[in-house]
Amino acid sequence: SYQVSAFDAAGNTSAQSASASATTQATQYSVTVEAENMQTKSVGYVLPDGFWNLNSNGYISHPITFPANGNYTFDIVARGTRASGTWPNMRVSVDNVVKSNVSVNSSTEKTFPVTVTNITAGQHILKLEFTNDYYNKRTKEDRNLYIDKMTVKSSIASSMLSILAFAIADTMSVAGIKLTAIISAAVELLAGAPDVGLPTQSV
User: Fold this and answer.
1) How many whole angstroms from its chain centre is CA 10?
2) pLDDT at residue 158, rounded to an integer
3) Of the four, 94, 97, 165, 189, which is 20 to 30 A from 70 by CA?
4) For residues 36, 38, 39 and 42, what is the CA-based torsion angle, rounded to 10 degrees?
5) CA 107, CA 176: separation in Å to the nearest integer?
6) Which tens digit of pLDDT belongs to each residue from 89-135?
7) Beta 26-34 vs 201-202: how paired, if at all?
8) What are the two backbone dihedrals, phi and then psi, of residue 182, each rounded to the nearest 5 degrees?
C-alpha cells in the first residue's frame, strides 16, 4: 500500500493521504524478427531448421521502430559451434554503436537476453555480428554462429500511474498545501520505462 503527503515552500507538511494499493499489470511492446527475414545479410545462408548460418565474419541487421524512449531487451535465439576452445562471439549494435558482446556458449538453441538503455523513439538499425570466425584445415574445427530470431520488448507497470493519481487527488484536498515532491516521484518511478501498449508483432 502507498501513502503520500505534500509540503509548501515554508516547510509546512500535510497529513498523510489515505492508503492506496493496486496490483501491477504491465503493458508490453514486443516485435519478433526471424533471422532469414532480416533486411540485410552480409554473409551466410538459411539452414533447414530456420537458423541463419553466419559461416564467416559478418552480420545480419534490420530496422526496428521503437514507440517510445526507454530501455529495451533484445532476446536473441541462437546457438554456436565451439572451436579451438572458444565459442562464437555475437556483437550486438544499435545504429553501429556496440551495445554488447555475447559469447554464444551453447550448441543447442538458447535465448541470450541483451538489455539496451536509453533508446530514443523512432527507427534504429539493430545489427547482430559474428566477429571471431575460425577454421583449422588440419583438425577441421569450424567455429560458426547460428541465429534463429530476435525479439525486442519492453514493459511498464502502468498501474503506478493510477496509484499516484489516487494519492495526488486525495492529498490535494488538504487546504493551503501546494504539491511539489509527488510529481518528481512520478517521474522517477517511470524513468526509463516506455508506457506502450502496442500488439505483439512478428516479421
Assistant:
1) 43
2) 36
3) 165
4) -70
5) 67
6) 999 999 999 999 999 999 999 999 999 999 999 999 999 999 999 99
7) parallel
8) -65, -40
Name the residue type at position 138. Answer: R
* Model pLDDT for residues 156-203, shown as the tens digit of each residue: 443 344 444 444 444 444 444 444 444 444 444 444 444 444 445 566
- Residue 155 phi, psi dihedral angles, 5° rounding: -145, 165
Check: CB of residue 161 under 8 Å from CB of residue 32: no
Which pLDDT band holds residue 33 (cuts at 50, 70, 90)? very high
User: 59 φ, ψ to 5°?
Assistant: -150, 165
d(CA 48, CA 145): 15
d(CA 16, CA 1): 13
pLDDT at 6: 65
- Locate all alpha helices (DSSP H) within 15-150, ordered by sequence: none
d(CA 90, CA 111): 13
Q: How far apart (Å, rounded) are the C-alpha atoms in residues 101 and 87?
A: 12
Judged on CB neighbours under 10 Å (0-12, 13-18, 19+), 100 is middle
Cell of 198: 502496442
CA distance 193 to 119: 10
What pLDDT score does 19 carry?
64
For the record, the C-alpha cell of 76 comes out as 536473441
Three-state DSSP class for residue 161 = helix
